[in-house]
Amino acid sequence: MTMPPDERGAELRELFFETAQELLQALNEESLKLEKNPGDEEIVRSIRRTVHTLKGDSAACGLRELSELAHQFEDALSLESAVAHAALAEIAFTAADVFAEMLAAYHDGGALPDTAALRQRISELTAGPAAKKSRRKKKSDVIVETGKNWTAAEKRAADEAKASGLALYEIVVKIDPHCAMPIAARQLIQNAVGECGKVIVVRPDAKSPAASKQVEFLLASAQSQEQITAKCNIPTISGEVSVNQIHAATAVQTPAQANEQTTVEPQVAAVNSATAAYVTEQPAPPEATTETPAPSNEAITPHAAAENILRVEAGRIDNVLNLVGELIIGKSMLQQALSEFGKRYPKELLRGKFADAMAFQARVLNDLQRSVMKIRMVPVDQLFRRFPRIVRDVARQCGREVDLELSGQETDLDKGILDAIAEPMTHLVRNAVSHGIEPAEERRSHGKAPRGKIRLHAYHQGNQVVVEISDDGRGIDAQKILKKAMELGMTTAEEAARLSEAEALDFIFRPGFSTAEQVTEVSGRGVGMDVVQSVLQRLKATIHVETHMGKGTTFRLKLPLTLAIIKALMFWVEQRLYAIPLNAVSQIARTRESEVHQVDNYEVLQLRNQVLPLLRLGRPSASDVDRKNCKLFVLVITVGEKKYGLIVDALEGEEELVIKALDDQTFVTDLVNGASILGDGKVVLILNLPAVVEHIAHARPQEKGAATCGLLLNHADRARLAMGAAGGQA
Question: 211 phi and psi, to 5 degrees?
């Protein structure tokens, strides 16, 4: 495996690995389009541009094997025989998979995969008498080799740019002779020029020996000569820069724009339309192929949005968020000190000034917190984009006909949560194809369309994000689930008879549970749904199943917007302080021990004509008299789609808590999500409600409260010791 020896290229390689994933995603999407529209020359050209960019970027980073393989595929795609080849889409899918394996090997330092099979498939595209360069490709070659003489296509594009009111510039940028990576430098220069306007011509070709010395452009732009020159001056990358205006910008207005200020975006769109036939042949970077936004009524400059986009490593944002969390803890400490000061000196005039300063600081800190959180938010489209390829592959393996429908892709979610749910969602989507959707013949026999449908939908609900995975398949048979659970010894016939449909469906999340009759590459190993639930519990998320026999199934994931800072309700149990997310609490009730009843070894409370199952974290009073007269606080909480009553000793109040992760080696329980430090130094444990509910539900009746309380008390003491250095004593 070849890697560049210069350590200064490490940052460039990291950037390449990030952008390469976007290129592979684009390659998969284009291959899916080609599979539905075989022989489409425009799609093939788009695939070739993507492969060309991957080839150039990998060569600039010294990844010779990847660059050579991409070069071989690119050359094959330029042939007329490739466009008409029946298996071109399949070869493109294989290429995307092999490229992904090679990138993973480069990144992790592992062995490169065998590429012989892919090379053999690529050679199929070059076989036969029709294997010759396409006429459109030859025309592109003529454009590049004509030097300063403009071709007819270039002249038409230039005339359209003039008519649209844009200025035309001839730009020559010499590459710094001391630059260690001239090919990468050329790409960076091209990216910078592309941000100034619309690139009509790029010379010389990237394969030309002169490409490492200088690069020339014909640019249509509304920016000034000084702005373009400044953009092209890149330290250690570009040398001498020459920008000559060959046509000045002119004001152009259409009748519809007579009463509005002329925008630049429609002008750029006109140039895009006029030059589309030519530009599609250019080896443009991903930025240059972005679609032009819809015209707006605000006067803006071309690519203004692109200039304001900055790639930042997620770890840096996490560091800022951690610092914001420390500031919030500091705010709580100041508020605690101010409260004590007010009690000690109630008539002190400075007390009001301190309160005003604290209120101002709190407002600014809240704004800062929201701003940082917005930086971490990304659209779920980043995750949804991978599923069309997954659905296509699994459907082929299982012999299904499936369409995928996406909606709500613009819904924002914390980047950390989005990454964490990628694997659970992949498993749910694969299950929907392999288990949910029926074969075409079976669907026809039930009066359904032969092609099944899977729908991914995301939307905001309060301070949560809901992601739904739905199918219109056969549904889940609750009775079959119960029968399998009894065969596996997970329940008895007596217990199964008392379970509701929702409780029966919960068995699919038990470890080792599977209804598949045979083991395949897709399913049947009894591993998966339990992992899905455990991942979601770690994220303080829930999953709910809704199914109808013969109509389909929906898995509904409810995810928190963020994992770093939460609004919490704090309470006391056995003289220890705990907290739960405030959004999980629907109401707070007062009752007495005498109103708590036992039903089938479970404690319940009748609250407003509703029988509420109770969860007791502490130990009940030993004296029967004390128990009957003892007053209780009951927190009505929602876990999944069910309501429970959480019995606590006393309430502390609401607080905004910064979640501190606990050491996995010290804390081996899933009952606790994390801990936080209050302004007075107290350590509060943040409970994982789904895990607490499951733990109490599966405990023996006589140990339900005591066992849970013992575990929580133990972990509370250990958390105080572990975090004592950071926040004092509880």
Answer: -65, -25
